[in-house]
Please model this.
Amino acid sequence: MLPYICNMSEKASTFIARSTEKAIDLEHRRKINFNIGKYNAVVPAGKSQFHDVELARQRAKNLKWKSLETLDLQLEAFEANITRRGAKVIWAETAAQALQEIKQICEEKSCKTIVKSKSMVTEEIKLNDFLHKYGIESVETDLGEYIQQLDDEPPYHIVTPAMHKSKEDVARLFAEKLNTSPDLTPEQLTLVAREKLREKYAQAEIGITGANFLIADIGAIAVTENEGNARLSCAFPKTHIVVVGIEKMIPSFTDLALFWPLLATYGTGQRITSYNSIVLGPKQPGEPDGPEEMYVILLDNGRTNILSNPKTRESLYCIRCGACLNACPVYKNIGGHVYATTYSGPIGAVITPHLKEMNEWKHLSYASSLCGNCTEVCAVKINLHELLLENRKESVEEGDASFAEKIAWKLWKKAMLNRKLMNMGNQKIKNWVVNSLVKGWSAHRADLQFPAKSFNEEWKATRKR
Ligand code: SF4
Model:
């Protein structure tokens, strides 16, 4: 309702227009409900591995708290430890800096082909578009991402990039782009993708991955995946580049014993993800496999803005499990693309206004029923719905509210604090004032109806009797 009386940015009006359209797309809803239904069916099995899942979530939150409160020290320890084994650490304050560093490495290696595993942070910096401009082919090797790349679409979900596509949609897409038969089964489609990707692995000079965790005490990155493509992207090409947000830090190698099963449970309902790799650096003397060089790009790109804010800091605890997206009634209706951001759903609505511009993106913090389901399901107990309210408050404090909104709230406050004013208008007048002023409400809902008598009037009458 509120965006209608706020100072609406172009992004906000586009969001409202696109979400209005998507919310009535029943085919889209059917596919999403089907896929989220499958997720909901398996999560309890994953949870059953924990003796006390609530305690596990709280411990994970405490560990992320520890990491973020001492992030400077943890990052330095990470850098010192991984550098000792020959990796090169690059600090990038912005997306542009990260891209320039990658370009320079590509030039040094005369790179023409890159194999890339699924990584939201490389989506955030728009890496593929950037490389394309310089004639470098960057091939997505995760099946879901590969499908999205074929379709020239960004990922729809942070864990399941092609969640909005049915198997028939994928078969049609492969037929159109790769000349395969439109009747292929999911297994056959997977084999087609595998065959195409193997060629790319053989050609690629560089492999790029993200990281699920940075591990301070041993100086390593941890990558979690179900297909083995990230492991190949790390190890097959001669150069491995890791692009990772600085908030992915965990203090110790032993913390993985908690984070790996937690991420698997809340991400895909598994007890443990199929492939979990810990990369400690490039190939060491005497080792037969692995890249000759490894670069780790530690990306800020707005994260220290969040870190400097004691209230919103906890949004950096996110381990990108995607559970809050699957639980969100808004996400389930409008889907991932309508957000027009890298990170969609509740966590996207919380962090995007801080990673980008509050004024441009605050509308996402209003796209919530505040039901609190996101907070209920969050693997690391982030108070997501409260952070959405915090964003709304901060946007007003930053002066992003329009003149009309400020006046509306002043009038509302005056009326609410004055009983005489509240009782002045009769039911008809109140109905008219509310339904004609709050236009966004009745555009999609029945008019608000005031009762014939206010509670105060009823109360007085009861006491008289
Ligand atoms: S906010 Fe919580 S539930 Fe949402 S993706 Fe992050 S860790 Fe998962």
The pocket of iron/sulfur cluster is lined by residues 266, 318-324, 347, 377-380, 382, 384 (CB under 6 Å). Confidence is low (pLDDT under 50) at residues 1-5. The CA atoms of residues 86 and 118 lie 25 Å apart. The longest helix spans residues 26-47.
